[in-house]
């Protein structure tokens, strides 16, 4: 068969394919291959015809043979690509990607439009396969080709936006090459947008900033993007809010950060991030109550900010609201979620603060919870301060041998650490080894003189050590005053100062002031509240006494603050206000229904009000609870007499006289 006949047969095959006579085409090709078994076109035509006849394996074999013969010719590669594209089999996707890569290589120096078409197909394939990195790199190459060809800025902008769209669902919040390419796409899209400023551009900027804020590695870029957007959109609060939250999470508050907090609040007084920032500023300035108020308000609007919860817990610790601090730490841990990288540092800080708060609650259950929190701290065993907290937890739990073991290890490994000596002091103090405790606390103070707790415990040590150290002005009093000066929220130290001025110095006025302060700091401190009221009454200052009682009863829930209800009830009874006395004494009894003296006082209040039957019941209840209360038995008889129940009254009087012959009121009755 001559060369001319081969060409004629190939032309016949091409015509047959054009006329969709695929079997005819195959015959012509076979004729050619008999003569020239390595004829590239014949193999390509077989591939085409076999594909149309659904003979996929034959088509694939033919294309591969053609490629083997001429690996740098387009036709066979295009045919193979078409074959794979129509295939319903999923396992050909990898092969198709390889084919597209080869086509790109072949078209690169020639037909740019064809190259772009193939590139689009490959990107779509990678997208379906969730191969985001390969997709992003391919799309970036496409944009590069377009740039080299002199594409318009608007076209390039749309291409960068398309890249963002393609990568949007790829974000795993893991900082990798794919994410870096996404950020690059955002940067280019933002810089190529038109018009600026404009709504689309503004939304694009917001998305860019939101994406940056997921990655702690990109803090410099995040700050720059926020500041650039603020210049372009000075009335939009979003970049300022993100920037402020970024400063909060960074844990270091510079002058610049404080400036932005103020700026945000000027723009939007109700901004959660702005209010949180102001709360942290208050914390820095030691305005703890104001800090708590602002941080709480800010977190109601922006709750997913672990650092802000931590700052709130810190402020709550400063004013000794330990249970509140534990709740804030729990919220911080919840907002933190899975922790790695910079958030791991926050997790460790929060767990440590939680453990400290639980130790201050000082019961065995809280101690157990503190130990569990400490176990979650990464590298806790290498941190001596964390070890000292663990020792205190063991002490609170009552596991003395474990506490002592930690203490001894710390004193050996970290003899210059104040916490090592303080832990030893707490252990000695709990065992009433006051002389050893004194030595330990003095050592702790020598290393960390500004810690109120150490001075407080040294004061307590002197208080219980002996009468001599208790009364010595230079011992207990000096330490309590130092503690109070260092921590003006430490209620218990003011209670002891009150006891010192009342029982040792005999200064009722100063004692009353200290007890009042202790009660203001801790509304559950009955000892201080009672003492402040008693001293106010002794000083003839009923207004102060009443204001303390009113404050206590207003805050009290049902069945609590018996001392306050009882004191106020007795005051009303003495000042001829029986109805108010009845209400308060009933409230006191709800807290302690078995208090016979309280029932007796309630009987008096009913009697003063003229409610004789209820008065009689109250006196009888008092004498039931305490048969030795002669006065209640006598008052019951007196009320029976008023009610005209003379026989009962006489019997009760005689009953009293059997026990106490000389009881004059009964004889008189």
Automatic annotation (TrEMBL):
InterPro entries membership: Ski3/TTC37 (IPR039226), TPR-like_helical_dom_sf (IPR011990), TPR_rpt (IPR019734)
Q: Where does the source fall among the domains of life?
A: Eukaryota
Q: Output the Gene Ontology cellular-component terms.
A: Ski complex
Keywords of this entry = Coiled coil, Repeat, TPR repeat
Any Pfam family matching the protein: TPR_16
Coiled coil residues, start to end: 3-39
The biological processes this protein is annotated with in GO are: RNA catabolic process
**PROSITE patterns assigned to the protein according to its UniProt record, in alphabetical order:** TPR, TPR_REGION
* TPR repeat positions: 40-73, 562-595, 596-629
Protein name, entry field: TTC37 protein
Which gene name belongs to this protein?
Answer: Ttc37
């Amino acid at each position: 068969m001559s060369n001319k006949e081969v060409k004629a047969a190939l032309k016949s095959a091409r015509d047959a394919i054009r006329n969709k006579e695929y079997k005819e085409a195959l015959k012509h090709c076979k004729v050619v291959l008999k003569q020239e078994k390595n004829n590239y076109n014949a193999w390509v035509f077989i591939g085409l015809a076999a594909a149309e006849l659904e003979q996929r394996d034959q088509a694939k074999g033919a294309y591969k043979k053609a490629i083997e013969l001429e690996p740098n010719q387009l036709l066979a590669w295009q045919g193979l690509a078409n074959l794979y594209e129509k295939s319903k089999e999923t396992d050909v996707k990898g092969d198709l990607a390889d084919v597209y890569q080869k086509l790109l290589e072949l078209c690169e120096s020639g037909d740019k439009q064809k190259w772009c078409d193939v590139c689009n197909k490959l990107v779509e394939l990678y997208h379906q396969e969730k191969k985001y990195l390969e997709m992003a790199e391919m799309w970036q190459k496409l944009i590069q080709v377009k740039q080299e060809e002199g594409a318009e800025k608007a076209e390039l902008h749309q291409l960068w936006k398309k890249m963002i769209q393609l990568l949007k669902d790829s974000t795993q919040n893991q900082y990798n090459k794919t994410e870096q390419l996404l950020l690059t796409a955002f940067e280019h899209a933002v810089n190529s947008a038109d018009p600026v400023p404009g709504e689309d551009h503004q939304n694009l900027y917001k998305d860019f900033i939101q994406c940056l804020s997921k990655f702690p590695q990109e803090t410099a870029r995040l700050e720059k993007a926020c500041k650039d957007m603020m210049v372009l959109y000075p009335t939009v609060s979003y970049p300022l809010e993100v920037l402020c939250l970024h400063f909060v999470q960074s844990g270091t508050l510079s002058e610049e950060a404080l400036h932005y907090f103020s700026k945000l609040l000027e723009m939007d007084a109700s901004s959660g991030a702005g209010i949180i920032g102001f709360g942290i500023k208050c914390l820095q300035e030691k305005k703890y109550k104001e800090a708590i108020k602002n941080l709480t308000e800010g977190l109601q609007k922006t709750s997913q900010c672990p650092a802000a919860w931590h700052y709130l817990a810190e402020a709550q610790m400063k004013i000794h609201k330990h249970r509140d601090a534990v709740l804030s730490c729990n919220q911080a841990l919840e907002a933190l979620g899975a922790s790695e990288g910079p958030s791991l540092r926050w997790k460790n800080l929060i767990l440590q603060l939680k453990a400290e708060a639980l130790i201050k609650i000082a019961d065995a259950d809280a101690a157990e919870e503190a130990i569990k929190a400490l176990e979650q701290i990464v590298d806790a065993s290498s941190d001596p301060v964390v070890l000292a907290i663990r020792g205190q937890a063991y002490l609170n739990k009552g596991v003395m041998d474990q506490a002592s073991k930690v203490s001894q290890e710390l004193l050996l490994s970290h003899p210059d650490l104040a916490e090592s000596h303080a832990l030893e002091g707490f252990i000695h103090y709990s065992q009433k080894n006051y002389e050893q405790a004194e030595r330990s606390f003095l050592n702790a103070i020598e290393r960390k003189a500004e810690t109120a707790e150490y001075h407080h415990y040294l004061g307590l040590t002197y208080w219980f050590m002996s009468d001599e150290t208790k009364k010595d002005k230079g011992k207990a009093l000096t330490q309590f005053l130092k503690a109070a000066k260092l921590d003006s929220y430490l209620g218990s130290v003011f209670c002891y100062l009150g006891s010192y001025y009342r029982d040792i110095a005999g200064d009722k006025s100063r004692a009353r002031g200290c007890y009042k302060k202790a009660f203001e700091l801790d509304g559950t401190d009955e000892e201080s509240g009672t003492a402040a009221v008693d001293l106010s009454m002794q000083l003839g200052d009923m207004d102060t006494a009443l204001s303390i009682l009113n404050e206590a009863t207003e805050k009290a829930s049902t069945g609590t603050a018996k001392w306050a209800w009882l004191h106020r009830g007795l005051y009303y009874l003495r000042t001829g206000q029986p109805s108010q006395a009845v209400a308060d004494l009933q409230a006191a009894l709800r807290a302690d229904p078995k208090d016979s003296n309280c029932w007796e006082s309630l009987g008096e209040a009913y009697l003063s009000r003229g409610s004789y039957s209820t008065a009689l019941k109250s006196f009888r209840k008092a004498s039931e609870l305490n048969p030795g209360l002669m006065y209640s038995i006598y008052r019951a008889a007196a009320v029976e007499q008023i009610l005209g129940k003379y026989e009962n009254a006489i019997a009760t009087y005689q009953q009293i006289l059997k026990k106490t012959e000389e009881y004059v009121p009964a004889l008189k009755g």
